[in-house]
Amino acid sequence: MQLNIEEIREYCLSKPGVTEGFPFNDTALVFKVMNKMFAVLDLSEEERGITLKCDPLKAIELREHHPGVTPAWHFNKQHWNTVVVQNIPSRQMVFEWIDHSYELVVNGLPKKIKEQWKSLD
Question: What is the pTM of this model?
């Protein structure tokens, strides 16, 4: 299944408090909540895919059950996965993986920041 970049972008931006930006150049979009990255959407033709933060058990599960998911390590050396365009099982699954990544980052925010963020809603 082909990854629809604009659909993924809109879905990420629909989450409360999400901002986007170009991290290094114009070949990727970074999605953050309270300045913490939860997704990187690669826009290049050759590498098109999405990198999502996962907890270690979820990362193992995704790699074992979906050939389009490969391990990737990010700057902070935590577990990340890359969902490769050619082997995405379904739109809904990708949206669920994005939700997992978003929730993981939100739940990991310090209590004081979470309180400030929730008061903005």
Answer: 0.81
